Amino acid sequence: MRIDLLYFDGCPSWKNALDNLRVAFKEENIEAEINLVLVGNDEEAMKEKFLGSPSIRVNGIDMWPMSRQSYFLSCRMYRTAEGMKGFPTVTMLREKIHELQLGK
Q1: pLDDT of residue 104 exceeding 80
Q2: Which of 13, 15, 66, 76 suits a disulfide with 86, CB 3.0-4.6 Å?
Q3: DSSP secondary structure string, 38-65?
Q4: Which value, in Å, is the radius of gyration of the alpha carbons in the chain?
Q5: Domains in the chain with CATH codes
Q6: How far is residue 83's CA from residue 104's CA, in Å, rounded to a whole number?
C-alpha cells in the first residue's frame, strides 16, 4: 500500500494532516510508510492533478476525490464535524480507512 501526502511549502495545514494520518493508522493497527510529496509550482500541480494542500492518496487515488478542470497550488478545505478545517480529522481518516478497507 502506498500512502502519499501531497502539499506545498508554506501550507499551514499539512503537518496537522500528517500527524492525524499517523494517529489514524496507529489506531487501526496499520503499518504504512507515508511519502511526503512536495508540489512546488502550478506546473507540478497540473502534472500531479493536485487537489490542494494537504491531499492524501492511497495507491495513487485521492481519499476525497473531486472533479476539476485545472490544478494549481492552493489550500484544501475539509468539511469536518467541527466545521471547515484545512485538514481531515483522525475520525474522518479512520472512517475512510474502513470505507476503503485498507486494514484488510
Answers
A1: no
A2: 13
A3: E--SHHHHHHHT--SBSEEEETTEESS-
A4: 13
A5: 3-99 (3.40.30)
A6: 31
Count the residues in the chain.
104
Q: Tell me the three state secondary structure of residue 96.
A: helix
With contact defined as beta carbons under 8 Å apart, do 11 and 53 qualify?
yes
What dihedral angle (degrees, nearest 10) is formed by the CA atoms of 39, 45, 48, 53? 60
E strand residue ranges, the chain = 3-7, 34-38, 55-58, 61-62, 78-80, 83-85
**Given the C-alpha cell 502550478, which residue does it identify?**
42
